Queue: 2 jobs
Job 1
Amino acid sequence: MAESKPKPKIQKEAVSIPKQKPQERRQNFNEVSLGYSEEQALAEANRCLQCPKPQCIQGCPVEIEIPAFIKLIREGKFEEAVKKLKEKNSLPAICGRVCPQEEQCQKFCVVGKVGDPVSIGRLERFVADWERAKGVKVSDNTSSTDKKVAIIGAGPAGLTAAADLAKLGHKIVIFEALHLPGGVLVYGIPEFRLPKSIVRAEVDYIEKLGAELKLGYLIGRTHTIPELLKERGFDAVFIGTGAGLPAFMGVPGENLGGIYSANEFLIRVNLMKSYAFPAYDTPIRIGKHVVVIGGGNVAMDSARSALRLGAEEVCIVYRRSREELPARKEEVENAEEEGILCKFLAAPTKFIGDEKGWVKAMECICMELGPPDESGRRRPVPVKGSEFVMDADTVIVAIGRTPNPIIQSTTEGLAVTRWGTIVTDENGKTSLDGVYAGGDIVTGEATVISAMGAGKKAAKAIHEYLTKKQQSIAS
Amino acid sequence: MYRILVRKELAPKIKLFEVSAPEIAEKARSGQFIILIIGKTGERIPLTIAGYDRKKGTISFAFNEVGKTTKQLGLMKEGECIDTITGPLGNASEIRNFGKVLCVGGGVMIAPMFLQVQALKEAGNKVTTIIGARIKDLLFFEDEMKAHSDKLYVATDDGSKGYKGLNFLEEILAKEKFDHCVAMGPFVMMKNVCEKTKPFGITTIVTLTPIMVDGMGMCGVCRVTVGGKMKFACVDGPEFDGHAVDFDGLIKRQKLFLPEERLSSLLWEKLGGCSFGGK
């Protein structure tokens, strides 16, 4: 295809992405966004100004050379565009779907000052999908070191670190506690936002790079980190175990039936496929009036899943206002298009059960916004006497998670914050020699891409550590 | 894949499997559990470890054929493989010389209780054991328990063997002084034991494996109120101070998915014991 010259005048609006219609998609778990066609991708790529000093790259936690890969799309060189992406990002099909680009690369896009920013994420997704449809090629790994690295957790941080270290020729073993790889990408993010076949394909790619995957191994129990280093021949360890235990609100009635943590609800639906019960063994029960507590992406995912499971009405209850919603704007829009209701400035005070021990209603109190708290957001303050009761026969609590304690309690000398997250330097090095960590286990709950960024940084640091170790042995 | 090496019928619908799982066997200790999955469409179920042999690289566990997964498991033969076993999970029991220990094992949990009895005996304790079941046919390990305990009592709900119910426990407690008590069995039984030991101030440790999904500290379905605080059986337990456990809450939560469990089991049986999709 001949290079299409950038038009002198930039189209202010981004090429919109085809989606399943709200009425249709609320009945199924298929992906909502259908992705750009080749024509649409070319048109969108043409909106990029190819700035001599690109601003977008600073917004990318893995520093993809964004203008370069877009230029290759523009030239129809999709194969090379993928290669360019994969120099920095081993999981482009995933990032193209779940990265909050509006907060990252696209926030800095110069075109965004006059109209919509260039849809970098959609373009990333387009080329990654193009490659997958065609069949992923892995270049032969020529170099190989005799160093062995254990990656704990096959989520975004671990998979990224594994890919980068495997490419550098190290022997990689990924220990995943669950029976399927992908971490939050399989147990958390629903099929309609990130099809599991895509995660599988990305994991296959990492296995093709030479990484070995061990499923059903809970490090801290089956083996501990000291054992991996001292007895099992590993030279370094990367901990990417993610966010852990669900947080609850501590209000009366939380143990009633029908009250799920978002983690439980999403694990049942996504990982265990309980939407297909009884063909799959794990059950889930959805009532008529579903209430989701919280305002992040996990809350949106839970609400939209509940709708697809047949709830009559799904209402998100958030203690701040619309402006403070931490979820991606795109996901909030998708949710509202599907008919999900939002009740702002309210928080539950107790759950009311029926005689069988199932929740039937929720008492809430209205909130107003006071001065900002330490997070910089305005603090919600309860309004005295404003209690009200709403119907709720299923409640999903999506107010965050706290770190899983198993590794911390079985690894002597590993420095931990008072919240239970692991302490690292800016390169992911922990207080222990040869032990690195990254992702939610270090930062607390954050995004897929920031975990990948951390995995990437740690991989670089681990490589340097191993190289230095090699040299000191040699000399 | 985890190969079944020994399949033993302990009582009607109660089986004990010894499976090859060298890496789990290396770490397994009394009180811990495993999560097991059969097939590609299976659920994750927790089962308490009932034995391990580090040299042979095996672990064993017992199960009661009550739901689809355990019924499926019951049909498996020696030499066949279980798809996934993760473990050992949860915290191991505190095993030390307490002095005089009372061990109460009920139903299928008599099997892991036997492991605990052996460990407590080895640690130098004087061990009095009670094993109980609904009816006499469901009792097992009587000889084994006798061999490893200083004293053994047998009880059944219907009185078909030994004492009828657990009320005799009050007499024993009034006569003898115990320093420690361990109870493993159905929630109702453990609650009963706790109510009886409480007036005597005997620390009573109970093992809780309620409904779990991941079993490693992610989903929170195994939450239980202990001493007024929310605890997760999978990572904070599975053993807790029985006198602080809210058993009534636990018993209610255990029934949450009863209709679905029945449906799943019924469909499976009606369709001739075959698996849907998966496998």
Job 2
Amino acid sequence: MTRSRRRLFGLIWPPVVFGVAFLAIWETAVNVFDFQPYFLPAPSAIWDAFRSNTALIWEATKVSGLNALIGLVLGTAIGVGMAFLLARFRLADDLMSPLAVALNAVPIFVLVAVFNNMYPVTSEVPRRLMATLVVYFIVLINVARGLREVGSVYLDLMRSYAASDVTVLRKVRVPHAVPYLFTALKIAAPASVITAFVSEYFGGLQNGLGSRIVSNIALSNNAEAWAYVLGACLLGLAFFLTAAVLERVATPGGVGARERDRA
Amino acid sequence: MSEDGAADGRANAVEVRGLAKVFNAGRPDAVEALVDIDLIIAPGEFVSLIGPSGCGKSTQLRLIANLTEPTTGEVRVNGKPARTARLDQDYGMAFQQAGLFEWRSVAKNVELPLELKGWDRAKRRQRALEMLELVKLPEFAGHFPWQLSGGMQQRVAIARALAAHPPLLLMDEPFGALDEMTREHMQTELLRICGETSTTVVFVTHSIPEAVFLSTRVVVMSPRPGRITDVVEVELGPRRGVDTREAEAFFTKVTEVREALRGIQPAGIEPDIEQVVDEP
């Protein structure tokens, strides 16, 4: 126990020291070179702005966070469903996979403008659609791979047990795809948050973190803008950590643990 | 070994008659993997298939296991058509890769074939623990595959293959990825396990000493097209161990199998040379 605790401590202190040093250098640089607040505010100023605007930041965080969460849940559900279809039907795979890859290569943020045009200006739907779309592709591609890329030795074994396709799906393909799903979620969770912010840059209600960053910069409230950026970082981090914790809980077989050992 | 298997009232473990397998049949890239294979294996025999790569030894094992269908000819296992035998799970199988499911504990891996047969939880857990006892890994029941060494994983794979007490064990180079020391140890263990469970074994290998040490018969195969060129009977007695590997009889049989393999070219060597020569 003490040994693993010492190991944990060993993992934690280097980034903490680095982070503190980085902030110290930033603070000193702002003071020494006398940067103007509109160029770069000092960390202490950002922290003050964060403290005095906590309630407002929290309100904006709830708006962006809800949009991201809805996108994450919907995108995951549709992505997993589609992955099963692709794994089951060869034709669907042949039709969809190249399309999915091609679409994923397009900077899909351009679609925000289109979605915004489709819905009333006060609607949150376009932002949620964007987050859904981004999550959907990440989940689809990873889960489909997890369902499909099962080693031939496992398929031979299952055939020797006279297992049906449904049994192979249940006993082999689905458990094999679970780590792929969590890999996807760890990428998709922060991506859904980023998508929710950036979607706000393209108009619509001025109520989320992204639009607040823009409007504060427009008013030259740079420390406040940075305070909202800090809120955005914390939200993204919260999403990632939730995904990582879910992974730990859902893979008791130590699949996650083994990957950590390899890393 | 009796021709019809009826002599002692038991069906032959394996009967292969007039077997041929062509991959990509009817296409320009058709490959004759096996031609004209006849092989009869009686219950209790340990038969090795040996030959250079490309001689179709693995394909032959896969045909016996009904993992692939023959182009012509017939395969019977325990007196039934190979497909029926597979559906009845009349054999267990082990491969070069242990092929353990990494999300299942060691015991759960051994239980898998029993689970698919519909055994209840308590009964299959008890059998799994017995099997782990047999392969001398009882204390690892709750471990996960990645916590085990290669040799230990392969022992779990053997325990899994034998969990349902099948009369026949099909093994495709199961020790091919292990180091020499582990390999010899595993061979001795396999003989002990098969002796205790009176299992018939068909064993694919490319190691001459391994084939001689384990087998009652060594079937020598050659490529292009894959066929049986020789059968060497080995009788080193039921109690084989470290001393067997240094005995005169062992070396005599090793030499005999090596002689039988002499002159057999691995697949792909000659055609490559022809291709180079034929190039304009």
